[in-house]
Write a structure and sequence with these properties.
The structure is a single chain. Helix content is 40%, strand content 26%. The chain is of the alpha+beta class. The protein has helices spanning 2-13, 42-46, 51-64, and strands at 21-26, 30-36, 70-76. A 3-stranded mixed β-sheet has the order 1-2-3. It starts with a helix and ends with a strand. Helix 1 packs antiparallel against helix 3. It is globular. It contains 3 helices and 3 strands; from the N terminus they run H-E-E-H-H-E. It has one domain: K homology (KH) domain (GMP Synthetase, Chain A, domain 3). It is found in: Cytoplasm. This is RNA-binding protein KhpA. Forms a complex with KhpB.
């Protein structure tokens, strides 16, 4: 669920949607989502002063409240 959400949001933001890759790492108490985009699109995913990244993380935490797990979004370059 969260993986699809991050992938959809990222593909909507970037110029190269084929370059979007999301890896899911399941832990016992938390889930880590690794987001990788093409080098030219990294700024579009992070946003000015990290605003877009913060908004995506807020949406993820709201989405994860029903599962009770903590969700961490890592943007890899």
């Amino acid at each position: 669920m969260e993986k699809d959400l991050v992938e959809y949001i990222a593909k909507s933001l970037v110029d190269d949607p084929d370059g979007v890759e999301v890896n899911l790492i399941e832990g016992e108490k938390s889930t880590i989502l690794e987001l990788r985009v093409s080098q030219d699109d990294i700024g579009k995913v992070i946003g000015k002063h990290g605003r877009i990244a913060k908004a995506v993380r807020t949406i993820l935490s709201a989405s994860a409240t029903k599962t009770g797990k903590r969700v961490v979004l890592e943007i890899l370059d």
